[in-house]
Write a structure and sequence with these properties.
Blueprint (H helix, E strand, L loop, with lengths): L2 H53 L8 H79 L5
Helix pairs in contact: 1-2
């Protein structure tokens, strides 16, 4: 595979890796938002339970233990969901770090190949100039060029 073909392939790989990182980053952001929403629900539920306990009357106090028990059960469920989301986020975060490392490696290789292409181009230009100089020399020697 020629250098220019390698360069084109590496550009494509780089774009794919960038897209992959963006997709993984979006997934991570979603999971973090889910964690935050679950935390907010838990906080609101806790605050509501405190308010209900403080605002309870003699007539409603008999229902308070059952209500607080249901709040505790819901809090445990939210805590489990948060833990699952955090675990999933940690896995996605690791995938993001892996994709980042791969992207950086691809970028380094891409830069090296770009330098090789530039060097090859400079060599070709120098070779063409040498050929032109030789042709002019030969023409001058034979008297066909008086430049």
């Amino acid at each position: 595979m020629g250098l220019r073909d390698r360069l084109a392939a590496l550009h494509l790989i780089d774009r794919v890796k960038q897209h992959e990182m963006e997709t993984i980053g979006a997934s991570l952001a979603e999971l973090r938002a889910t964690e935050k929403a679950l935390e907010d629900q838990s906080t609101k539920l806790h605050d509501d339970a405190l308010r209900e306990a403080a605002d309870s009357t003699e007539d409603t106090r008999i229902f308070l233990p059952a209500y607080l028990n249901s709040v505790e059960i819901r809090q445990q469920g939210l805590a489990e969901e948060r833990a699952a989301a955090a675990e999933q986020a940690a896995l996605v975060e690791e995938r993001l770090f892996d994709a980042f490392r791969e992207t950086k490696t691809t970028e380094q290789i891409l830069q090296r190949v770009k330098k090789e292409v530039a060097l090859e181009s400079a060599r070709a230009t120098a070779s063409q100039m040498d050929d032109a100089d030789r042709a002019l020399y030969m023409l001058a020697r034979t008297g066909q060029f008086t430049g």
